[in-house]
Amino acid sequence: MTIKVLVVDDQAMVRAGFAALLAAQPDMEVVGEADDGERGVALSHEHGPDVVLMDVRMPVLNGIEATRRLLDPPAHITHVPRVLMLTTFDIDDYVYEALRAGASGFLLKDALPADLIAGVRVVAGGQALLAPTVTRRLIEHFSRTAAPPITNPPRLDVLTDREREVLVHVARGLSNTEIADALFIAEQTVKSHVSRILGKLGVRDRVQAVVVAYETGLVSSGRSS
């Protein structure tokens, strides 16, 4: 299956470089390029890409607001792409806001070509592009700004005790293998729990589950409810 990609970046050389690299892949097609978020949203609605590579800082409409519009489109737009954020900066407030807006992950602009190609494939396949080590750094930031812990977050009532336990570990940045070791269960069982957690919370991937865990107060700096 061919992955359709839209590249949105205000730097012409960066945009052209990414587009050329991805277009050279046998399983990818670059359906458009845009130099600002507003144009990116318009082209996405027009071409229906599977993945949008979205810069954070752009004129006219920044990448965060563009991501919100893409993931919450007007009623007549039925296609919703996955968004992979691009940033020059290693984890900043803009990136956190992008993840809250629904982005499936992010890459630094100086990532290796192989990492960019792999990242597009990962996101197109429905997974989040956020390694456990990156998740931990996200958590360090989130823990300074998230709500204080509460005993019974209402949104989490749909989860079983075991699912809450797994979510806490996910939010702490543990991989499936690490969670399996911590809870003395099979890795496949962890995968099943994570899948059910995502479905029950109505979130698209692991990144959004981490956001929910912190925003509901289930997890906070150094402790969990």
Structure overview:
The chain has 225 residues and is α/β, with parallel strands linked by helices. It has two domains: 3-128, 3-Layer(aba) Sandwich (Rossmann fold), CATH 3.40.50.2300; 135-224, 3-Layer(aba) Sandwich (Rossmann fold). The chain is built from ten helices and seven strands. It has helices spanning 12-23, 37-47, 63-71, 93-101, 113-124, 132-145, 161-171, 176-183, 187-201, 206-215; strands spanning 3-8, 28-34, 51-55, 82-87, 106-108, 219-220, 223-224. The strands form two sheets. It has a five-stranded parallel β-sheet, sandwiched between helices. A two-stranded antiparallel sheet has the order 6-7. It is globular, with a radius of gyration of 18 Å. The model has no long low-confidence stretch (mean pLDDT 84).
What is this structure, in a nutshell?
With 225 residues, the protein is α/β, with parallel strands linked by helices.
In CATH, what is the class of the largest domain? Answer: Alpha Beta
Domain count: the total is 2
Name the CATH superfamily assignment of the largest domain. Answer: Response regulator
Helix content: 40-55%
Q: Which spans of ≥5 residues are poorly predicted at pLDDT below 50?
A: none
How many whole angstroms does the radius of gyration measure?
Answer: 18 Å
Largest sheet, order of strands side by side? 2-1-3-4-5
Distance between the termini: 43 Å
Oligomer kind: single chain
CATH topology-level fold name of the largest domain: Rossmann fold
- Alpha-beta content class: alpha/beta
**What's the SSE pattern?**
EHEHEHEHEHHHHHHEE
**Mean pLDDT figure:** 84
Q: How many strand units?
A: 7
Major sheet summary line: 5 strands, parallel
InterPro entries: CheY-like_superfamily, NreC/VraR/RcsB-like_REC, Sig_transdc_resp-reg_C-effctor, Sig_transdc_resp-reg_receiver, Tscrpt_reg_LuxR_C, WalR-like
Organism: Saccharopolyspora erythraea (Streptomyces erythraeus)
Keywords: DNA-binding, Phosphoprotein, Transcription, Transcription regulation
Domain Response regulatory: 4-124
